[in-house]
Amino acid sequence: MARGGMRDWNAYWDKFKSLAALQEKSNNIDETFKRIEAEFGCKLLSGDHIQIIAALEERIEELENAQAKTQAGVQADLFESI
Predict the structure, then answer these.
(1) Mean of pLDDT over the chain
(2) Coil, strand, or helix at residue 46?
(3) Interatomic CA distance for residues 81 and 56, integer angstroms
(4) What letters, b where the CB count within 10 A reaches 16 and e where it falls short, cover 35-60?
């Protein structure tokens, strides 16, 4: 980052709870970079892009795993009800 130093991108993405919103940000990564630059008032460097993408992918995977566990739990509850 040109100004403000390194950011904790994992903490940044942890603010987002919606898997669909994060997937949208991933699919439109150039627009996401522009919004982040506007939010922090600085120009992102290539190293920042890599860190942002890595943290975003981790967060998406985390939410996908949580969603899969929830669905598995619901299925188990259905079988217990029968």
Answers:
(1) 87
(2) helix
(3) 38
(4) ebeeebebebeeebeebbeebbeebb
Query: Could you tell me which residue, 78 or 27, shows the higher pLDDT?
Result: 27
Structure tokens given for 43 = 């120009």
pLDDT at 68 (0 to 100):
86
pTM score: 0.79
- Whether the per-residue pLDDT at 23 is higher than 90: the answer is yes
Residue with tokens 């217990």: 80
- 22, exposed or middle or buried, with CB in 10 Å at 0-12, 13-18, 19+? buried
The tokens describing 47, both together, are 């190293």
Spatial separation of the C-alpha atoms in residues 2 and 15, rounded to whole Å: 23
- What is the distance between the alpha carbons of residues 71 and 58, in angstroms, rounded to a whole number? 20
